[in-house]
Amino acid sequence: MIKYIALYRKPADTEAFAEKYFATHLPLVAKTPGLVRCEVARVQRTYVPGFLGDTEPFLIAEMYFESKEAMKTAFASEEWKAAGANLAEIGGMELVAMFAAEVLENANEDQR
After folding, report:
1. Which residues pair with 37 in a beta bridge?
2. Are the CB atoms for 21 and 42 separated by under 8 Å?
3. Residue of 76, 83, 71, 95 whose CA lies nearest to 27
4. What is the pLDDT of residues 35-63, one digit of tens each?
5. 77: exposed, middle or buried (C-beta count within 10 Å: 0-12, 13-18, 19+)?
6. What is the rounded CA–CA span in Å between residue 29 and residue 83?
7. How confident is the model over 8-39, as pLDDT tens digits?
8. How many Cα neighbours within 13 Å face the side chain of 87?
9. 5 exposed, middle or buried (CB, 10 Å; 0-12, 13-18, 19+)?
10. Please, where are the H alpha helices in the chain?
11. Are strands 35-42 and 57-65 parallel, antiparallel or unpaired?
């Protein structure tokens, strides 16, 4: 399994951004073909000295796919493109860092 992670820094108006994000963006993401699940968390500890420099994290979104190939197929879909366009419309593109990570199913075993 692989997940695509979106780490959002704190916007100037957290309430307005969150309202748009949850009302318009997440419903579009949910339509992405091949998406197994999506989890969103609001960061509780907003400052860790030295971590991310001066950036204050706000939200973390994790989108899970069965495989790297399924994720690549999802990224080419119209649904994913619509979600990306919406994120730009609500001002999220300048707030986000995105990356993929392989989920280690047996984290207690040596996964190097």
Report:
1. 64
2. no
3. 83
4. 999 999 998 865 556 556 667 889 999 99
5. middle
6. 6
7. 999 999 999 999 999 999 999 999 999 999 99
8. 19
9. middle
10. 14-20, 26-30, 68-75, 78-89
11. antiparallel
Written as six digits, the tokens of 95 are 């707030």
Closest to 66 (Cα-Cα) out of 33, 95, 99: 33
Please, what sign has the CA dihedral across residues 11, 93, 19, 52?
negative
C-alpha to C-alpha distance for 81 and 78, rounded to whole angstroms = 5
State how far the Cα of 58 lies from the Cα of 52, in Å rounded to an integer. Answer: 12
Q: Which two tokens stand for residue 98?
A: 């995105």
CA distance 109 to 112: 9
Tokens of 2: 């692989």
